[in-house]
């Protein structure tokens, strides 16, 4: 049993966590929910004693009645991994790339219990089997780069549970994964709690993820727990205004825009194929080619918003790069406003200027040494920079809701949501016809996501834009697209009006995707939001 | 792995071939030819022509290259016209000094840099880090010949532990080793300082990675995470620098060789250049370039040994 009593964390004079009281009982799942910066990850790090240097703690963390906060580092090393373990958000970087998965899982046993290597590896094998990585397909000698994101997260879970800890802290364990994988990982975590009797602290920004999973929910805002109650009460009868706001954001529905019937086709993708040499070692000897995009055809009308949905690895990104004229295609053709799209220099700038893109991670797609005015003005190199370019930048920033004295600032000075708005301003500045949004809201918190989706809907009306909205999240696609295409293994398996496809899917794969999408308890969630929306 | 190895081997062979052509052409293109240099400015044209014919210089370039490279492959690099001995034997003789010296300096440099870099990285930003890295900065700035003279003053003149210079030959291995210790230390110090800085910054970057946090959450102490997870991940840039240092140490030790009167490769090349002994220059450069290319190949193999992502591609 782990309990915190008035846990606080300070950095210098700043109070980052204030009077956090959590009771994490064996066999129970507690969800800690809040937006980024609310202090939920910090709570997890404080529990396992891995706060960044310079931060100071107050209060008590009791592990079976013993306060572990004052313990020296050496004692804490014996608790970490053994009694309290943690799984982090980003599975792609959470494992040592130079060590086999077997060694990484066995390491804690070698160090903590001094088991001989073969016995430790045997236990590692058993734990990997438990998390759904059977020996036949996942020998201990594999390296992380040979595994997918979901598989790596399973390894991270296996190494966290090697020593059967009493508490497992999972910090956004599925945020970086697509819906199908997310469901599998959540099921796995729930199963572990059930079978091994550990307590699970599930940290997430998305209330929908914990619906039907968590026993208790603690809602965190600005370093304090504003509401803590059994899950049913949180979803059915939320007390705190912020909890209601979170619920409302998760159910957010921007107004729908309907396409004009006389619209002309803007983007035509006809029978496009693209393949790569296969790189995974399990693909066997000889030159094998991976057909990432397999004879795909699609059309986007002017002013139309089309969703493209699929799991990671289904070919979405490859198709996007082909449409943008970044990579050559091996078959078929792509036309934008009737003109052929080519990769490389053969594509005229004027045509390139008609489409722009916004990526998932706006920070990664900004030069960290450029100021906002230069970042936003960058696409002008396609059209020539007008004399009044600074006014145009200000106008574009205003359009996306970034106001104030920001022109001379750098990307790192903005929050995730603001950066994504700046990325949108950069896309808008040369007034393109088509904007490709590649997982553009996937990295955002529910509340910020709702705001950006609202903005996208508004901009589309104002500028008559077309969107190609790429996402793995069906609930987001429902909110902003007229039509949706479901992609799997390089092929479009289903397409149609968004409401029709999502409410009445034809293809079994679409049904599978829908089943995996986390949802708030339907009627109740809606009811409470409608009832309470006046009060917000 | 086979594909990676094969690819590296092809690169190795091609680099060697291109380098040999380049070396041959450079000597070919310098104004004048070996024959006129050897005979001096006052020589009769007929004498020069006779010597040219004797040396085969009147044959077409491609044919001469083929002869030269064919002989080089069997270990014949021609005759030095100042020493009147086979160039290959000359170079081999000098390598007996230069190769052990370079290897000793390299090992010393690693032995010094490894603990210092790890110490500084573990204390990133704190007093120990600042102190050690400040010392390393001094080590880099120190001219190594000056440091070498200090070493001689202390260990040879004052303490009389080690010889001040000269090389007795490998007939007496202990004496030979002793005569290489001071030069190796003088060569190793600045290299160690560079290496320590590279290792420190690579380690500091690695320690910020997510998998270090995972390792700490597993219950590893800070030191264990550094040794067991960060060190190997930080080795790639270190190995790159090591490869470059070895090439430098093999031929770039000329100043130190002069301070300690060592008959090394650097001095041979220097003397050959001043005496316009182009055959020796050509042979020595060929050997050095081949060594550099070979070391690069070994560095590539080391990458693959460190990183499974290269090995398993």
TrEMBL record, chain A:
Subcellular location as annotated: Cell inner membrane
Any GO CC annotation of this UniProt entry: plasma membrane
Positions of the ABC transporter domain: 2-247, 267-514
UniProt main location, coarse: membrane
Gene Ontology molecular function, alphabetical: ATP binding; ATP hydrolysis activity
Matches recorded under PROSITE patterns: ABC_TRANSPORTER_1, ABC_TRANSPORTER_2
Top-level lineage group: Bacteria
Membrane topology, from the record: Peripheral membrane protein
Keyword entries, A-Z: ATP-binding, Nucleotide-binding, Transport
Listed Gene3D superfamilies: P-loop containing nucleotide triphosphate hydrolases
A biological process term (GO) from this entry: peptide transport
Family matches, as PANTHER family: D,D-DIPEPTIDE TRANSPORT ATP-BINDING PROTEIN DDPF-RELATED, TRANSPORT ATP-BINDING PROTEIN
Protein family membership: Belongs to the ABC transporter superfamily.
Protein name according to UniProt: Dipeptide ABC transporter ATP-binding protein
Species name: Paracoccus litorisediminis
Source lineage: Bacteria, Pseudomonadati, Pseudomonadota, Alphaproteobacteria, Rhodobacterales
From TrEMBL, chain B:
Keyword Cell membrane: yes
Subcellular location: Cell membrane
Keywords, comma-separated and alphabetical: Cell membrane, Membrane, Transmembrane, Transmembrane helix, Transport
Gene3D superfamilies recorded: MetI-like (1.10.3720.10)
Gene Ontology CC terms: plasma membrane
Name of the protein described by the UniProt record: ABC transporter permease subunit
Pfam family, one: BPD_transp_1_N
Domain of life: Bacteria
């Amino acid at each position: 049993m782990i309990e915190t009593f008035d846990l606080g964390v300070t950095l210098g004079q700043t109070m980052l966590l204030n009077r956090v009281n959590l009771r994490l009982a064996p066999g129970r799942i507690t969800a800690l929910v809040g937006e980024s910066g609310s202090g939920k990850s910090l709570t997890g790090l404080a529990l396992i004693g891995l706060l960044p240097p310079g931060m100071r703690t107050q209060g008590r963390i009791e592990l079976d009645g013993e306060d572990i906060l004052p313990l020296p580092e050496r004692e804490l090393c014996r608790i970490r991994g053994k009694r309290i373990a943690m799984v982090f958000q980003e599975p792609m970087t959470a494992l040592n790339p130079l060590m086999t998965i077997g060694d990484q899982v066995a390491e804690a046993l070698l160090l903590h219990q001094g088991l001989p290597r073969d016995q430790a590896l045997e236990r590692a094998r058993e734990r990997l089997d438990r998390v759904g990585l059977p020996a036949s397909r996942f020998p201990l000698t594999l390296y992380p780069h040979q595994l997918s994101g979901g598989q790596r997260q399973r390894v991270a879970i296996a190494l966290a549970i090697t020593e059967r800890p009493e508490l497992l802290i999972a910090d956004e364990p599925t945020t970086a994964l697509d819906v199908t994988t997310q469901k599998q990982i959540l099921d796995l975590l729930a199963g572990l709690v059930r079978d091994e009797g550990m307590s699970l602290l599930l940290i997430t920004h998305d209330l929908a993820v914990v619906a039907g999973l968590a026993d208790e929910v603690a809602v965190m805002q600005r370093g304090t727990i504003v509401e803590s109650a059994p899950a049913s009460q949180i979803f059915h009868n939320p007390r705190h205004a912020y909890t209601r706001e979170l619920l409302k954001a998760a159910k957010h529905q921007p107004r729908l825009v309907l396409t004009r019937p006389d619209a002309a086709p803007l983007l035509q993708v006809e029978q496009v194929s693209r393949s790569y040499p296969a790189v995974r070692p399990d693909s066997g000897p000889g030159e094998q080619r991976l057909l990432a995009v397999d004879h795909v055809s699609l059309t986007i009308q002017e002013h139309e918003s089309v969703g493209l949905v699929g799991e990671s690895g289904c070919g979405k990104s490859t198709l996007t790069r082909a449409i943008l004229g970044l990579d050559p295609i091996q078959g078929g053709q792509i036309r934008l406003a009737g003109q052929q799209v080519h990769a490389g220099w053969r594509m005229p700038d004027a045509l390139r200027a008609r489409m722009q893109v916004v990526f998932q991670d706006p920070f990664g797609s900004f030069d960290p040494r450029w100021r906002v005015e230069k970042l936003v003005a960058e696409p002008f190199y396609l059209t020539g920079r007008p004399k009044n370019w600074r006014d145009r930048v200000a106008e574009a920033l205003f359009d996306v809701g970034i106001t104030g004295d920001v022109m001379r600032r750098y990307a790192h000075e903005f929050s995730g949501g603001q950066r994504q708005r700046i990325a949108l301003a950069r896309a808008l500045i040369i007034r393109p016809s088509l904007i490709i949004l590649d997982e553009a809201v996937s990295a955002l918190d529910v509340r910020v996501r709702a705001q950006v989706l609202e903005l996208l809907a508004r901009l589309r009306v104002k500028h008559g834009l077309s969107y190609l909205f790429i996402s793995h999240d069906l609930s987001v696609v429902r909110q902003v697209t007229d039509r949706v295409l479901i992609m799997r293994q390089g092929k479009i398996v289903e397409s149609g009006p968004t409401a029709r496809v999502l409410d009445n899917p034809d293809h079994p794969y679409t049904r599978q995707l829908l089943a995996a999408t986390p949802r708030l308890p339907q009627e109740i969630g809606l009811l409470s939001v409608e009832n309470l929306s006046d009060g917000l | 792995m086979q594909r990676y190895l094969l690819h590296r081997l092809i690169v190795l062979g091609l680099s060697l071939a291109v380098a040999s052509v380049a070396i041959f052409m450079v000597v070919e293109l310098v104004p004048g030819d070996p024959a006129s240099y050897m005979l001096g400015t006052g020589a009769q044209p007929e004498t020069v022509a006779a010597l040219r014919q004797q040396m085969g210089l009147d044959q077409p370039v491609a044919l001469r290259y083929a002869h030269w490279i064919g002989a080089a492959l069997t270990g014949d690099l021609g005759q030095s016209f100042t020493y009147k001995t086979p160039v290959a034997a000359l170079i081999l003789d000098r390598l007996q000094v230069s190769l052990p010296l370079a290897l000793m300096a390299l090992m010393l440099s690693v032995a010094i840099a490894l603990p210092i870099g790890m110490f500084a990285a573990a204390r990133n930003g704190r007093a120990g880090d600042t102190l050690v890295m400040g010392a390393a900065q001094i080590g880099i700035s120190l001219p190594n010949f000056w440091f070498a003279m200090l070493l001689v003053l202390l260990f040879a003149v004052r303490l009389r532990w080690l010889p001040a210079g000269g090389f007795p030959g490998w007939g007496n291995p202990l004496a030979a080793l002793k005569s290489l210790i001071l030069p190796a230390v003088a060569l190793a110090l600045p290299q160690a300082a560079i290496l320590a800085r590279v290792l420190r910054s690579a380690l500091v970057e690695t320690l910020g990675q997510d998998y270090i946090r995972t390792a700490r959450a597993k219950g590893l102490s800070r030191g264990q995470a550094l040794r067991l997870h960060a060190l190997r991940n930080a080795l790639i840039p270190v190995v790159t620098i090591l490869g470059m240092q070895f090439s430098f140490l093999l031929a770039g030790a000329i100043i130190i060789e002069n301070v300690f009167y060592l008959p090394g490769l650097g001095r041979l090349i220097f003397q050959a250049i001043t005496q316009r002994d182009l055959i020796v220059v050509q042979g020595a450069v060929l050997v050095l370039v081949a060594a550099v290319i070979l070391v690069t190949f070994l560095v590539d193999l080391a990458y693959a040994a460190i990183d499974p992502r290269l090995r398993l591609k």
